[in-house]
Amino acid sequence: MTKKYYSHLTVPHTTSLKRSLFSNFSVATTTTTDDLPRRQGALTLFVRETRDIRYDSFVHLDRLEALVLFFIETNNSIAFQMGALKYVEEIQKKKQSDVIRFLLRVRCWELRQLNVIHRASRPSRPDKARRLGYKAKQGYVVYRIRVRRGGRKRPAPKGATYGKPTNQGINQLKYQRALRATAEERVGRRCANLRVLNSYWINQDSTYKYFEVILVDPQHKAIRRDARINWICNPVHKHRESRGLTSTGKKSRGINKGHRYNNTKSGRRHTWKRQNTQSYWRYR
């Protein structure tokens, strides 16, 4: 018996679940959740006489808020299953819940005791790390780092700013890059032989923000032989975190895709300078 895997279906509420399920069928005998038969903890929606859709949930259907369901077709039924990391992702979305608040509080205490930059044996958020390209294989490394929160104070020795009064501010200046970009740059300097792939937020307190940075070893054979990641081995990707080529770096540069970013293809400052500069040939 062969199984066919269909695309993912995101269901935000129960009504959307019924609408998504019944939209592909002409006849539906079940219209409300109160009429659903329950068998051994499973909820069954009888959509046709010859087929049924069975959903085994860890919560009641009327309390379902957001789940990604996988279609697995069998001979006479379609069963919904959810991967383990999807549970982790859904729990992580509710950061004000008692579980996540306690977990973040305990982990933050532990992170304060460790060094500013240290290597992690494994990602603390495996679902997020995998979405950003991490693989549990040789050649991938995860580093944790903490960055002090707040704005950037201008370095002015003896208070000399050397400028007009409008540009003499020191304290209330806002850094034009995210703290995550600063974290990537510092880790990239510490691990100069590795390439920064991406990073993500893991925790924060009143003083610091904590990030995990995913790095790749460009000299490892497992990386150089993998066609999906060996692009990062090219010399052009050296210290890409310092040149605004990572995800957070492009965000601060205003670079993205789509019709909303037509004027920022190479950066808004570069585009403005090019559009407001008149150039002539010397001999014309």
TrEMBL record:
<keyword id="KW-0689">Ribosomal protein</keyword>
<dbReference type="Pfam" id="PF00827">
    <property type="entry name" value="Ribosomal_L15e"/>
</dbReference>
<dbReference type="InterPro" id="IPR024794">
    <property type="entry name" value="Rbsml_eL15_core_dom_sf"/>
</dbReference>
<keyword id="KW-0687">Ribonucleoprotein</keyword>
<dbReference type="GO" id="GO:0003735">
    <property type="term" value="F:structural constituent of ribosome"/>
</dbReference>
<dbReference type="GO" id="GO:0002181">
    <property type="term" value="P:cytoplasmic translation"/>
</dbReference>
<dbReference type="InterPro" id="IPR012678">
    <property type="entry name" value="Ribosomal_uL23/eL15/eS24_sf"/>
</dbReference>
<dbReference type="InterPro" id="IPR020925">
    <property type="entry name" value="Ribosomal_eL15_CS"/>
</dbReference>
<dbReference type="GO" id="GO:0022625">
    <property type="term" value="C:cytosolic large ribosomal subunit"/>
</dbReference>
<feature type="compositionally biased region" description="Polar residues">
    <location>
        <begin position="274"/>
        <end position="284"/>
    </location>
</feature>
<feature type="region of interest" description="Disordered">
    <location>
        <begin position="240"/>
        <end position="284"/>
    </location>
</feature>
<protein>
    <recommendedName>
        <fullName>Ribosomal protein L15</fullName>
    </recommendedName>
</protein>
<dbReference type="InterPro" id="IPR000439">
    <property type="entry name" value="Ribosomal_eL15"/>
</dbReference>
<comment type="similarity">
    <text>Belongs to the eukaryotic ribosomal protein eL15 family.</text>
</comment>
<feature type="compositionally biased region" description="Basic residues">
    <location>
        <begin position="250"/>
        <end position="273"/>
    </location>
</feature>
<dbReference type="GO" id="GO:0003723">
    <property type="term" value="F:RNA binding"/>
</dbReference>
